[in-house]
Amino acid sequence: MFNIMSITLKGIFRDRVFHGILVVAFILPLIPVISTLSMRQVTELSITLSLSLISFILLLLAVFLGGTALWKDIERRYTYSVLSLPITRSSYLLGRFFGNALFMLITATLLGCVAAVVVWLVASGSPPDRQVVWMNFFLAVFFDAMKYILLVAVAVLFSTVSSSFFLPIFGTISAFLVGSSSQQVYDYVNSQPAQTLSLLTRKTASSLYYVLPNFSAFDLKVNAIYGLPLSLKGLFLTVVYGLVYGGIVLALSSVIFAKKEMK
Amino acid sequence: MKGLNQLNKGLLRSYLSLVLLGLCYLLLIVPFTGYMHSKPFIEKLGHLPRVEVFQFVAADQKQLVSASLVMKVMMYFGGLMEQNQVKYKLPPDYPAMSRIIHGSVKLDPYNMDAYYLAQAFLVWDIGAYKIANDLLAYGMKYRTWDWYLPFFAGFNSAYFLKDYESAAKYYQMAADLSGQPMFSTLAGRYMHKSGQTVLALSYLSAMEKSEKNKAIKKSYSIRLQALQAVRTIEVARDSYLEATGRQPASVEELARSGHLVKIPADPYGGKFFFEVEGRVSTTSEFTFGKPGK
Amino acid sequence: MNAIEITNLSKTYKGKKFSTVEALKNLNLTVGQGEIFGFLGPNGAGKSTTIKALVGLIAPTAGSATVMGVDISSHEARRHVGYLPENPAFYDYLTAEEYLAFVGKVFHLPESLLREQSERVLKLLELWEARKRPIRGYSKGMVQRVGLAQVLIHDPDVYILDEPMSGLDPVGRALVKDIMLELKARGKCVFFSTHITADVETVCDRVGIILKGELKSVEHVDKIMTEGVLGYNLRIRTRNQPELVERYVAKEDLEMVMQKLFTAGDEISLIEPSRKSLEDFFLDIVKGKIC
Ligand SMILES: Nc1ncnc2c1ncn2[C@@H]1O[C@H](COP(=O)(O)OP(=O)(O)OP(=O)(O)O)[C@@H](O)[C@H]1O
Ligand SMILES: [Mg+2]
Questions:
Q1: Does C74 or A36 have the greater pLDDT score?
Q2: What domains lie within chain C, and their CATH numbers?
Q3: A contact test, residue of C93, C135, C138 with most A CBs within 10 A
Q4: Are B73 and B105 spatial neighbours (Cβ–Cβ below 8 Å)?
Q5: What does each C-alpha distance from A199 to A44, A194, B270 come to in angstroms?
Q6: What confidence category does residue B293 fall into, taking pLDDT thresholds of 50, 70 and 90?
Q7: Helices marked H in B92-213 — which ranges?
Q8: Which residues line ligand 1 (CB under 6 A)?
Q9: CB contacts, 8 Å: C79 with chain A
């Protein structure tokens, strides 16, 4: 599995998609300039922009690297040469996944540090009303990375279900959109004005909520931007949720992939 | 040899068409840019989808989308400030601006720029004091540390809504949050009628000084000019009252009687006049783009 | 212990719209250690299907198989196997050297042995010059050579090669044959599929011929060669003539003719069997003349 992980990492670093996405990171140094557009919250805007850019880059990576990792191997017939080695299907799959996950973590760390420097520069130029809470900033980046790693797991699941290109890519994007707003829908369905909806709709929405990934829990941007306090318990629950949900998705992927025929 | 010739000819033709198309582009780009530039503001503000759509599409980028919505309104507002001196083609679409701002705080209820911008145009330009204060109250639920919001709300309550009780409450909040006791004394002063213009002047000049954004600063300085004009007329009116024992009938009379050296101009392009109770007002209603001006 | 044991192996592919293809029907086959086995069959006969089942790429519909005594359903079975896929593809962003290192590590080769082996096989397959270039830039034959290199690097007991000669130049083909013979000498089992009968003739101990998913014949190549003798070409120098005379004698007439020549006191300078080639044997089976 570690062998697969290391060649996965090598593959990503030599991938053209990665190079393309890396170019997007060059927007980071522009953030101080854009931030001055704000009237009352220059530093806050710089944090917003940095975190959003990091998020966006990680999203692209998750969709295009995570979503294509297995598909490419099958499409280019690498699976014949790799899966006939004495490794189990699941260790191959996990190797692929953890390679991607590790890469996302590395990227997030690097971008997070660069962004921190950028924000620090902005903050020292135009001091914010409230001090930047660096702890929150880095936690936000870390949880963002976790969220997209979870998305990679979902992408891997899609890749094992279908060997086409479309399901992994578009399935992952929809999972991301739905997962980001599932909490909102759930909250709405359980609110007073929604009681006029039919019981079936409400029940369906609620049960979907429990099945679909909940990405909004990982979104700590608002805490980082405005220095709002974080709940330790909430963070802990979110981490555990991420681990368990990711574990389930990967286990499911392993089962499906083990049965898959490399014809 | 012949084949080579043919090849060269083909290549030459490609080059020629490239040059021709390049020329066409140059000819086109000037009028095109002109057209895009002169496109009315209303179009640039555009028709935005409902907040619910944004909430879904924004996914985990709600703060970013919120910020960009405020930016959009900002640019539009800035454009108004630039164009007004010349001549604007369409009345500003204040309802759309308000709608977008409300949408943006739905996405990010912490977005200070949104409240700030709303305060700048909602109260002064369209007199939607109630809406402004509701928005500020919404913001106060989230930005619990911020004294600006109650400060704005206090000002609106006292100056526009004449709701001195609420004003006192808001000013107290602002004083508590900022640690500056000066706010708590402000509300009381508003009760004097003549004091209103003075305090609006001090509020505006403070806001104008601390403002870095050009468009907002400009909107404040224009308003400041207008209020300074009002203040000048008020001073003249008061001295006229003292000298003659009665209210002047018109601003022109003040000038004729020598109490007013020169009738100040309304930067909004209106004409000053006295309301029945003697209050100084203007036909522009202190805003650009009033129809029938 | 047999290197490969296949019992009642069947594979039915499920296509779209409930269509099925019976690619393999009840295959029984054993291949011993130290044996080179040629798997011969026309296109679509089921050679690759058999091989893919052996290396765990597809699951057999029925039946079972073992490699070095380990059931193929376990990935441990592949620990003894070097597999070369047909038209192989390898992570093309890696260089040949990196790919070999990856394979070596999967097989737990110690670092020093890995480096040694890597150099040996790269030089053997004439990839040494290109070893630091990504596989992306390799020619078809070079990729095939990488495929062979990654089979050889971990020195397995069983070699399962799907059309190992395809895409190789004549020098490469000869090299592969030499390698196979050398492996056999070291007691390894080589199981390979091919369409080319000449290759089988020169290196194989046994050949299996598969047709439409059914194994039609498994024979020792030697036996086919002897049974395939149709007659003999004799070169004779008779006493009254100084020149050599060539004469063809049918198989059943040989004894009689020899007897005659002896009694006549003629000198036989050469006896050469004239036989049906393996190709003919193969074609006969395909056309249904035998069995
Ligand atoms: N993925 C698949 N789905 C459906 N049928 C398949 C699939 N792969 C192979 N087949 C069928 O199985 C049969 C055997 O195919 P196989 O690839 O084993 O042939 P082969 O002997 O290797 O042929 P070749 O010499 O062309 O490589 C063929 O009829 C083929 O059409
Ligand atoms: Mg084949």
A1: C74
A2: 4-220 (3.40.50.300), 229-275 (3.30.1490)
A3: C93
A4: no
A5: 42, 10, 59
A6: very low
A7: 94-107, 112-118, 124-126, 129-142, 148-155, 164-178, 182-190, 193-210
A8: A 263; C 13, 15, 21, 23, 41, 43-49, 86
A9: 86
Is pLDDT at A179 greater than 50 in this prediction?
Answer: yes
Percent of chain B scored above 90 by pLDDT?
4
- Please tell me the predicted confidence (pLDDT) of residue A101: 93
Which residues of A make CB contacts under 8 Å with B?
36-41, 44-45, 48-49, 51-52, 55-56, 129-130, 144, 147, 176-177, 180-181, 184, 215-216, 218-219, 221-222, 225-226, 228
- List chain A residues with CB under 8 Å of C88: 77, 80-81
Residue A252: CB atoms within 10 A of its CB come to 15
Both tokens of residue A87? 């490794």
Q: Bigger pLDDT: C186 or B84?
A: C186
A92/A203 Cα distance (integer angstroms): 38
d(CA A163, CA A72): 9
Ligand 2: centre distance to CA C89 (Å): 15
Using a 10 angstrom Cβ sphere, with 0-12 exposed, 13-18 middle and 19 or more buried, the burial of residue A175 is buried
Whole-number pLDDT of residue B6: 67
- A3-46 pLDDT tens trace: 888 888 888 888 877 787 778 888 888 888 887 777 778 888 88
Contacts of C266 (CB under 8 A, 6+ apart): C236, C237, C238, C239
ipTM of the complex: 0.85
Residues B120 and B135: their CA atoms lie apart, in Å, by 13
Instruction: Give CA separation, A174 vs A157, A221, B66, C191, in Å.
Output: 14, 21, 22, 48
Amino acid residing at C272: E
Q: Which residues contact A33 (CB under 8 A, 6 or more apart)?
A: none
Torsion on CA atoms B232, B233, B234, B240, rounded to nearest 10: 120
Helix or strand run (H / E) with residue A209: helix A199-211
| Domain total of chain A | 1
Domain that holds residue A95: 2-259
- For residue B289, name the pLDDT band (cuts at 50, 70, 90): low
| Interval C4-51: pLDDT, tens | 999 999 999 887 777 888 889 999 999 999 999 999 988 999 999 999
Mean pLDDT over each residue of chain B, to the nearest integer? 78
Query: Which residue has tokens 């660069």?
Result: A114
